[in-house]
Here is the input.
Amino acid sequence: MANVSIDGDNLIVEIEGLDKLWALKSRLVIPLANVRGATADPGISREAKGLRAPGTHFPGVITAGTFHIDGERVFWDVHDATKAVVIELADERYARLVVEVSDPRATVALIERATAVS
Here is the structure.
């Protein structure tokens, strides 16, 4: 699971627990100017992930780490797809972040408020 917060002009994604090991990341810092939006998307887990490099993927259990698909890099950290949020980015290492959060609606609202102001 991930904790998503706003700190000044940055979106902070903190990877929690053992997911740091599975995703090979503990924290992502993205300038809000590069965040294009966010959606709660429980169906995303059924989509193709692409090539894992580096990361972990056990279908139905966990998808975590960096995946390459259609010429883009996508960061995943999802166990429970019903809590998945997709954060669209521009001009960043990743095209999208797909992360599990405790409250998808609240996370999407937080990102929408923050990007509307920036």
